[in-house]
Design a protein that fits this description.
Chain B: It is a multi-pass membrane protein. Chain B: This is Na(+)/H(+) antiporter subunit C. Chain B: It is found in: Cell membrane. The complex is a heterodimer of chains A (798) and B (112). Chain A has 798 residues and is mostly helical. Helix content of chain A is 69%, strand content 2%. Chain A has four domains: 236 residues, no CATH class; 288 residues, no CATH class; 29 residues; 171 residues, no CATH class. Chain A is built from 34 helices and two strands. Chain A has a two-stranded antiparallel ribbon. Chain A is elongated, with a radius of gyration of 37 Å. Chain B is mainly α. Chain B has one domain: Helix Hairpins (Orthogonal Bundle). Chain B is elongated, with a radius of gyration of 19 Å. Classes of the chains: A mainly alpha (798), B mainly alpha (112). At the A-B interface, helix 26, helix 27, helix 28, helix 29 and helix 30 of A face helix 1, helix 2 and helix 3 of B.
């Protein structure tokens, strides 16, 4: 165990204390106790800052399931550190914010903070794990904690719906990722990401390379809400706003981005990887931005914008992966810049989107609504919130002087580079990027202006709006300050944070000692990127102004065919189908269930019997058969067949009893006096019991059974009989082990008993016999209860 | 003789299973009873029959029949007895409560 392990486990361990704080110290908001954890971890990760590119990353390993190659190994490199700082940094601000957002009196805060800490630990686990299997465990843990947090207000139907949707989609993806991880693990012979990266050249020719890649991408796309899996994210907005800010914009949804970045060294350079990620990313970018405009709920707008921005980061990672393709070695610098843009935008997006979510939470908190149609004219009432929205919104729109401008320009540079340098048909990339950015610009304007300018309608609001308490404003203010300072001093973090992160994504591209060229500038001169931005501003404003005229475009696609309703109908259909399938075989008939069991036995046991060619017999050791034994055997067989056909109760019972007595005679022949005696006694009592039951139970009727059922019953019973006979015969020939019975011949010396069977029962295996008596006793109680006790008419017991 | 006994056990299994698959409670219980007999005979014959004297040390025999299957079957006889007794009473009570001994008509109504 190292300090790094402890850092991952700390949030998990701390969850034990959270309910205690909540119960024992109800006067202090539980959040104040929780905030210590992210703050401590943030400081801890800062001490690892900056990571040196040249020095090997910190790796610690604890064996877990060593035989399966699963070790709880953690590593801290540039990429992991960037994520860890975002997780703990935004985490600290979110907890601070939640202290003011979540009411101490009304809310189940212990649940909230336990889930939050679970998530934080799991998310740190994802980015720090070096072992794929461990990473998968943490990956699913984030899905589960996300589920719990979305359903935090579980009384609401929408919350439960959203939670289920998110769970189904992300866990589906997680499962795909597990399969992918198993495949790549099999191909490489190890689950350690570092070792897999180390052998990437040999992996590319492996048969499992492509399936593993596709499955891992499926995991990444579902988690990062990429088209068409994005539909869960808008519904996840039912979570409390601090959660939306933390999980569903800054951290959890970036796990997919992380996964893609982490696997770029393995898969990057493969053209499939580039095409899939670039296309899906761009499509998501466009679709998210396009759909964001029509949203009337501010959080839904932000959700779609998050989808869109995640698509942007994805597509950049796709383009950047080309740097590892040997065909483009000469242009590697260009693609490397795309990775830098991805990392920088990921950082920026976490900051400005966190800020925006917090402001929307403030609006919700202070006005009682997030509906754009009800809001308006709040600028003078909530000046600080307005300023924050402007900063966050314009950063998202990609305008100076905010950090989003820088990464947006770098994004354009990336797509333009992909177009110029790949010599493939990629002109659509810059075009799609540009169009999507226009929509982005338009919804940013909606976010800022529809909310804060225009006419103020106090009558539409539940509360009288006023500025939020200072504690709620501090976190978004801190984020907004970062947004602005990242524009003016973008290179503060270049070499100590971004450059090591790029190095993790594109290892081995640079020789040791050589560094990536990371220089983020605001002014590049009048180049294409700048013209693109100017175009976006002009067209975006135009779109915003004329929204009423073209807004009908959204109704072109009938609701039936939207992805959301496809999901709903699919789910309902699947439920119906499975219910129907289940009810065909779970029909409530004892007969059917027993038939399944018997048929299964025949197929499984008989099948393996045949497949293993286990049949064989050995007549040589067989004992001789006397005439008397033939008669006995024949009588038993005849009686057994007779019981089936007989319709008189009495005859049937007597026949069954006769079989029992004949069996006890057989025991005499088998040299088993104890068995014969016991069987005689038991058979007598059983027959008496049967006769008693005969007195109470109705007459046996000739059963009206369809001939088909009769035949199947006959087939099953003959099958079972024949199968067991064959197994019995085969088993006689095989003595795999020396019998233990010789030991019991010393019964007299060991236990003073001369009857070996009795010695076994009461001495050697006395515990078995005791438990057997318990069974008898229990059956006795059961019999007594069934006969004596019954519900009185009033419902009590007599 | 082992083969013969195994075949006898097989017929007991066959009629046992056939009865278990029928609708009447009494038949099902009788089927269980027959099935148990089959199992006992099977266990005995797998072990090999008539090999030495009964497992009583007074016999002073050179070899004895294996006592382990006998102990096993003895336990089984008692357990199956309690099972039969319980099932019979259960059948009796079911008939009293529901007025039928047909398992097809004893289906739960609230299944989905």
């Amino acid at each position: 165990m190292s300090l790094l392990h402890f850092a991952v486990l700390l949030p998990f361990l701390y969850t034990i204390f959270v309910p205690l704080f909540f119960k024992k110290l109800p006067r202090i908001h539980t959040g104040w106790f929780v905030i210590v954890i992210p703050l401590l971890l943030f400081v801890y990760f800062l001490t690892n800052f900056p990571v040196q590119t040249d020095s090997p990353p910190i790796v610690h390993s604890v064996p877990w399931i060593a035989s399966a190659g699963i070790h709880f190994s953690l590593h801290l490199d540039g990429l992991a550190l960037l994520f860890a700082l975002i997780i703990t940094g935004i985490g600290t601000l979110v907890v601070l914010y939640s202290i003011y957002y979540m009411s101490m009196k009304r809310e189940a805060l212990h649940n909230f903070y336990v889930y939050l800490l679970l998530f934080m630990g799991a998310m740190l686990g994802i980015v720090l794990s070096d072992n794929l299997m461990v990473m998968y465990v943490f990956w699913e843990a984030t899905s589960v904690s996300s589920f719990l947090l979305i359903a935090y207000w579980y009384q609401r139907k929408k919350s439960r719906y959203g939670a289920q949707k998110a769970m189904l989609i992300t866990v589906f993806g997680g499962f795909a990722m597990l399969l992918g991880a198993l495949m790549i693990g099999t191909a490489a012979g190890t689950f350690s990401i570092r070792e897999i990266i180390g052998m990437r050249e040999t992996l590319a020719d492996h048969a499992l390379f492509l399936p593993a890649m596709l499955l891992i991408l499926l995991g990444a796309f579902t988690k990062s809400a990429q088209f068409p899996f994005h539909i869960w994210l808008p519904d996840a907005m039912e979570a409390p706003t601090p959660i939306s800010a933390f999980l569903h914009s800054a951290t959890m949804v970036k796990a997919g981005v992380y996964l893609v970045a982490r696997f770029t060294p393995v898969f990057g350079g493969d053209m499939n990887w580039f095409w899939i990620i670039a296309i899906v990313g761009t499509l998501t970018l466009f679709w998210g931005a396009f759909m964001a405009i029509r949203q009337t709920d501010l959080k839904a707008l932000l959700a779609y914008s998050t989808i869109s921005q995640l698509g942007l980061i994805m597509s950049l990672l796709g383009i950047g992966s080309l740097a590892l393709n040997p065909d483009f070695a000469a242009e590697a610098d260009w693609f490397e810049a795309a990775i830098l843009a991805a990392i920088f935008h990921l950082f920026n997006h976490s900051i400005f989107k966190g800020c925006l979510f917090m402001v929307v939470g403030i609006l919700d908190h202070e006005t009682g609504t997030r509906d754009i149609r009800k809001l308006g004219g709040l600028m003078s009432l909530m000046p600080v919130s307005f300023t924050l929205t402007v900063i966050g919104g314009l950063s998202m729109a990609g305008l100076p002087p905010f950090s989003g401008f820088l990464s947006k320009e770098m994004f354009f540079a990336g797509v333009l580079a992909a177009n110029t340098h790949t010599e493939q048909w990629t002109l659509w990339l810059p075009i799609a990027a540009w169009v999507a950015s226009i929509f982005t610009f338009a919804y940013c304007l909606i976010l800022v202006f529809k909310t804060f300018t225009g006419t103020y309608h106090p009558d539409r609001l539940d509360k009288k709006p006023h500025e939020a308490p200072i504690g709620m404003l501090i976190p978004p203010i801190v984020l907004a300050l970062i947004v602005v300072s990242a524009f003016f001093f973008p290179n503060l973090l270049s070499y100590n944070l971004f450059e090591p992160a790029i190095h993790s994504v594109l290892p081995g591209l640079r020789l040791p000692g050589e560094t990536f060229y990371v220089k983020i500038k605001a002014w590049h001169g009048l180049n294409t990127e700048l013209y693109m931005t100017i175009g976006i501003v002009v067209v975006g404003t135009l779109l915003y102004r004329t929204y009423k005229k073209w807004g009908d475009v959204y109704n072109l696609l009938p609701h039936k065919y939207t992805l959301g309703s496809l999901y709903d109908n699919g789910l309902a259909g699947a439920e119906k189908l499975s219910a129907r399938i289940t009810s065909t075989y779970m029909n409530g008939f004892l007969h059917s269930y027993l038939s399944y069991i018997f048929v299964f036995i025949i197929l499984l046991v008989g099948g393996s019997f045949v497949l293993l060619d286990a049949f064989g017999y050995d007549l040589s050791t067989n004992a001789e058969i006397g005439l008397y034994e033939y008669i006995l055997a024949g009588a038993i067989a005849v009686l057994a067949g007779f019981v089936i056909s007989v319709t008189s109760r009495l005859t049937a019972i007597i026949a069954v009893g006769a079989v029992g007595y004949l069996v006890s005679l057989l025991f005499v022949i088998f040299r088993a006096p104890d068995l014969a005696l016991t069987q005689l006694v038991v058979e007598t009592i059983t027959t008496a019991l049967f006769l008693l039951a005969f007195y109470f139970l109705p007459k046996l009727k000739t059963e009206v059974t369809r001939i088909r059922v009769k035949i199947s019953n006959l087939l099953i019973s003959v099958g079972i009989g024949a199968l067991f006979t064959l197994i019995g015969i085969a088993a006689q020939g095989s003595n795999q082990f020396k019998p233990v019975s010789e030991y019991f011949q010393n019964a007299y010396e060991l236990s003073g008993a001369k009857n070996m069977v009795n010695a076994i029962l009461v001495d050697f295996r006395a515990f078995d016999t005791m438990l057997e008596s318990v069974v008898l006793f229990t059956a006795g109680i059961g019999v007594y209860t069934l006969i004596k006790l019954r519900k009185s008419r009033k419902g009590g017991q007599q | 003789m082992e083969i013969l006994m195994t075949i006898v056990a097989g017929t007991l299994f066959t009629s046992g299973v056939y009865l278990i698959l029928s609708k009447t409670l009494l038949r099902i219980i009788m089927g269980l009873s027959l099935f148990t007999h089959g199992v006992h005979i099977m266990l005995m014959s797998i072990n090999g029959l008539k090999r030495g004297a009964a497992p009583l040390l007074e016999e002073q025999a050179a070899s004895y029949t294996d006592p382990v299957p006998q102990a096993l079957i003895l336990t089984s006889i008692v357990i199956s007895f309690s099972l039969t007794a319980f099932s019979l009473v259960l059948a009796y009570r079911t008939y009293k409560e529901h007025g039928t001994d047909d398992v097809e008509r004893l289906r739960g109504q609230d299944h989905e």
